[in-house]
Specification:
The chain is of the alpha+beta class and 100 residues long. It contains three helices and three strands; from the N terminus they run αβαβαβ. It has a domain at 29-95. The protein has helices spanning 2-26, 43-50, 62-80; strands spanning 30-38, 53-59, 90-95.
Length: 100
């Protein structure tokens, strides 16, 4: 009986570690969307782009937050660059940092 117990013990310990990692990952939340890079011209417009930041209610769902952030950036681009939009000249990221 002891042999079986010893063989099961490592598997139980691995299961406990996996659960802890999943718990830690689910604690990560996102509430901020920021433009982090702009290749738009003129330079003054690039600086304006880099000052764009939006916040929302915190969520742990990364996909939902990316979709929300993409929508915000696209809305900003449509309003700011009325003819061509932002094309590929804008990069953005999500975080939990807030807008400073």
């Amino acid at each position: 009986m002891k042999k079986y117990t010893l063989l099961l013990l490592p598997f139980l310990m691995l299961g406990a570690c996996s659960e802890d990692e999943d718990e830690d990952e689910s604690k990560t939340t996102y509430n901020t969307c920021k433009i982090t890079e702009s290749n738009e011209t003129p330079e003054g417009q690039r600086l304006n782009d880099l000052n764009q930041c939006w916040t929302t209610t915190a969520t742990s769902n990364k996909d939902t937050m990316f979709a929300w952030c993409k929508e915000k950036v696209e809305d900003y681009c449509s309003a700011t660059y009325t003819i061509l939009g932002c094309a590929d000249g804008i990069k953005y990221q999500i975080s939990d940092d807030g807008c400073n």
